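input
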Amino acid sequence: MAKFIDFFKKEFVFSISLLLAIISCFFVKPSINYLDYINWETIILLFVIMLIVEILKNLAIFEILVRKLLTRIGNARELVFILMFICFLSSIFITNDVSLIIFVPFAILALKKVERIDLIILTVSLQTIAANVGCMVLPIGAPHNIVMYTVSNIPFESFFFLLLPYIVVSLAFLGIVLLFISKDKITLPKMSKIEFVRKDFLKRIFMGVDYYLLLTFIALFILIGNLENIPFFNSLFTKWIVGNEVLWGVIASQVISNVPAAMLLSGFSSNYEAIIVGINIGGFGTLIASMANLISYKILVRECDEFKVRYFVVFTILNILLLIILWCVHLLNI
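output
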């Protein structure tokens, strides 16, 4: 039982998704082929992206690039900017989740090395926001955008220009927050040599893939497919969602995170552009609005447990403020 509880806590999203998918199966016809619900293009694309990321990670490509950037730093504001910017840039290509998994521990370590632990809370908060902004640039930047890209078939350039106003405003917001960090001089410590480990290279790559994330997607596809075939939920969700996709994208993301929100809304509305806007700006706000937010929080608690309450407060204030600003941008774009 203890192992089961630990697994449930560790893989909370997967566990809930699987439980709801199983329960929903009791309310539809037994003859339904659940495999037909699954968008295999999304699953395969996500799997390939995760494999590529693991290859680059095990080749230490990311760490080499970050270290080269850090050698150009002279003060505290520049350090926080680099740590934040690398999350923005990397999340464009390797997803916001993976970017934070790699660079949040690196940021905490770097700040401890230069004896600026007072900047950890703000830096990790900005890194998380930056990763959620960067993932808007390309459809491959986050799981929720991968879902919408495969479902909607919207071209890369259209996807980018659709979210460009929100990207620009979010970057301006991050820039303004950075101005509140002093330019105190810092000296980076000497870092150990990076070594490439050849042993079990392929094994580490395939073991590094988040298979529970793929299973979560499969469970969610089955859940949404079943809800579409239950008349009560079909009529209820269609009535609520159609015409209000952006609003419900934001609301649903705050409660169930933007990945399940993307799958839920796309199952009941074909206004994909509105859904894309809603789930992307909806990734800001609460701690569970995006899985990336939870990843940063878990890493911070693991490394600096004494900061978890203050981090939650600072993170929530910054995210709610940005969410309000982006909602105003949406209203101006209507």
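quick obs: The longest helix spans residues 308-333.
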